[in-house]
Each structure stands twice: as C-alpha cells, then as structure tokens.
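Cross-posted from the bioinformatics board.
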Amino acid sequence: MTAIALMELKKKTKDKGLWFWTFLLPIIFIVGFITIFGESMGADSEQLVVQIVPGYTVMFSFYIMISIVIAFIKDRDSGMAARLASTPLSHLKYFLGKWLPFVAVVLLQIVILFGFGVVAYNLPLGDPLALTVLSIGLAFVATGCGMAMAVLAKTENMGIALTQVIALGGAMLGGLWLPVEFMPDVLQSIARLLPHYWALEGFKIVLLEKGTISDIWLSLVILVGFGAACSMVALLAYPRYLRLAKS
Amino acid sequence: MIQLHAIEKLYGKQPALQQIDLTIPKASSFGLVGPNGAGKSTLMKILVGVIEDYKGQIKIDSAPYVGNQTAMKQRIGYVPQDICLEETLTARDNLILFGRLYGVKGKKLQERINAVLELIGLKDREKSLVSTFSGGMKRRLNIGCALLHDPDIMILDEPTVGVDPQSRRAIFEMIHSFKNNGKTVIYSSHYMEEVEQLCDHIGFIDRGVVIEQGKLRDVLARHRQSSIYVEGKGISKQLLTGFEGVTEHEEGYLIESQTPLQTLEAVTCHLAKKAILPARLELSQAKLEDIFIKLTGTPLRDNGWEAQQ
C-alpha cells in the first residue's frame, strides 16, 4: 500500500494541472470575489472573508474528484490496474494506496488556502483541533465521492461531467457562493441535504463563533456519514471496476 | 511443474477458454501459440491471478493455486502485453514501485534495481522519464519490472509486439538468460519464428482450445511434412498427375511427401524425360506456422475467434 501511495504522491507533485486546480485557481477566485463583494457591497469584512475563503475551499476540495476519476480510469484503460492485480498486493491495499494521497492533497489544499486567508485577509482560525477534524471530514467526503465516481464512471468524460455537477451544483445549492440566508426557503432546505453546506457551516462555527468539536458535531457526523456512504459505494463497485480492467 | 486442468472461462456467455489441459515442465521454456484473440492472454491472466472467475484447477509444483495466491504470485514474474508503466515517473521510480509491491526493500531493492537496469540495458537512462522512451525501451522496462523479486517463473505475453530489431534481440537475450538460470518461461506469441527460436515446449491454442502440445521437436516430428516446390515453363498440374498431394503454390506447384528425397529424385527424372528445365526446384520443410494452419485452418496473424466474438 505504501508503494502505491508514495508513487501517487510523486505523480501528484509533478502534475501541474492538479497544482492549478487545487491551489492557484481557488486563490484567484478568493481574491477576485473578496475584491468584488468587498468593494461593491460593503459587506462586513470578517463575515465576507469567513464566507468566501472556506466557501471556495470547500468548493475546490470537491474538484479533487476530477483527478481521482482520471487516475482510476487511466489505470483501468492502460492495463495498470490489471498489472497491479497480478502482484501480491491485496485489492483493499491498492484501493487505500490510491485513496490516501488524494486525502493528503485535499488537506494540503485546505492548509494553503486557509493560510492564504490568514496572511492576506486576517482570516480567524479558531480552535485548531476542531479545524483539523473538520478538515479531515471534508477531505474524507470529497475524496470518498471521487472514489465512488472513479469506479462507477465508464469514461473519463462522463466522470468529469458528473464531477462538475457535484462540485458546481453543490457549491451553488450548498451556499458556498452566497450565504443560504439569502436563498429561497426551498433552496435552503435542499442546501441542508448537501455535504458542502455542512462543511461550510462547520467552518463558520469554528472560525466566527470560536466553536469547538462539540459545537460542530452535527457537521462532522453528516460529513463522515456522506463520506462513509460514498466509500461503501466505491468499495462495492470496485470488483466491477477490476473486472473491466482485467478484460 | 505447472499443471492446468479443465480450465474454462466465459466472457458473458461466450466461452474464451474451453477445457484447457496443459502441463508445463519445470525449467522449460513453453511457447503458447495462437492467433490474436485465441485465448492466450486470458490464459496468462488466469495464471498470474489477474482473472479469478474461472473454472478448473491450477497447480504449481503440486500445490493448488487457489488458496495460495499470494505465495504463488510471489513466484511469478508477469510481463503483460500492455506496457504498464507510469510514464510521468523515471525508469528507476517504476522499478522501485514494482520492487516494493513484491516486498523487496532497502539495500536489496537498490541492488536488484541496479542488476535489472544492467540486464535490460537502461542503466544510462535510469533517471529519464518513461514518457521520453522509445517503444522498445518501454518494452524492456516492462520486462524489468517483472524481474525485481527474482521470480522462478516468468510469464511473458507477447513481449515483442511493436519493437525494433535491436530491442527484440535484447529481449531474446534476456529470455535466453532466464532459461540458462533455470527459470520456467511461458512465452505467448503469434510470431511462430520467435517461439521456434526460444522455446523447447509448445502449446497451440485456437478458439479457446488447446489443439496440440508437447516438446517442440516432438510436435514438429508429428506434423512436419516435407514438400517439393517446382516452378518453370511447361510445368503444369497435368504434367505432375503422377504425384500425390500436388497443390498450386505461388508461381508453381507444391508436392507434399513423406519421403522427400525420393520424391525429389522422381520429379527430377520425370522433368528430364520431358526435357523440361525448371526455373526452381526446391526441397522445403513445413514451418510451425504451416503446421498450425494445417491443424486449424486459421492463419496466425488474422484476428482470431475470440476477437471476432
């Protein structure tokens, strides 16, 4: 498992596209939207920063799904997944070896984007433990969705299209672009069904209200629940993925 | 010794392998031969544990494969037909990955990598990205990845597809070194001349069925037929009616014979009596490919039955 994980990490460090999607583009969005909303709407500075920095962090963390889909479909179509199945490595270890590096990338993404928020906009961080646990929950749900998508998608294009729907649709409906209080009641109800909303709500409680783990338990339960459900789907669909890879 | 008994594999409802019985002696080099899509790769994937949903039994040195997969996989070096390398990583990184997957670590791994890089002739390119390699270099590295754990069984699935003559020669030398080191080599190809050159045992597979197997020399002795080829002005099928097994071939005629020297003498005398000087008069022996076609009626380089399915 370590061998696969290390190889994946090495590949990630060389993937310029991933660096762009994961770090550069979110920073551009954060700077752009804070500038636009700060100047045109005169919003409260701290509330604006606490909406936009975690909001876009959550949104772009779901973009890791694209990289996961591409990695798995490439492995399937190139014969690498079948080749690895001929080694003594167990299916579960292969699965975890591929997954964990993506979790690490999302965690690094959160650190860098929040770090940028602190340096550029005095983003308050709140309780470090709560922030860490919530970040792990977010990484778990985003990569879990990605793993499910990766083993279910028949083609790369299909996987990327569905990822866009989840990332962008979730961001729009989950209140990442606009606080849910400004949205119609129906959309507010829909927002509460999405992990994006609960991740942002958790971050707001930690950052704005100095909340601790006990204050964000509901967000954590929902994120872990979503992540576990997606992981279960991924694990159940994994034998089918391997069958496709082998034939 | 590797024994396969009653192996069957279905893709959907289509049988890919049917009642395969094969015996591969220890330290032999076994050529698995058949047209594209005959079932060679499927059989190899079963042997290396990639395909698990099949019927039948496999034993390696009398131990059943099922239930001992991890130990068995540790004994096998598999070179798939596809080039399975991480193109964005260096040659050394790829070797590190596969070495670790087989549990080779630390100083031993570095020693093995250096030895393998020497063997595959890529020592000077170990730090180059695989994406910069030629097809032949990738094929050699593909083989190298299967060698790091020093397996005693090498399974190579069409390892010379699309390679230049130099790399092909290098691959042949590697396979000869496996044989000389006492490894069991299973080599699949639809290039008969390669198998004839590399292997001492052979199995013909067509439409998912093994139609012939055994020592190469025994198979050749069983099926090899000599023939006389004659071509020239005034030579017709009618002229050769006194001979059996005459068929049109290229610009002339082929006369099959179990006693080629006598037939050659008879043909020469017959033509001399008629005062005909042939442009070509040759004694030739059927090659493996001719034997295969005779047994199956399927040209080797055609897309085979499984592909047509």
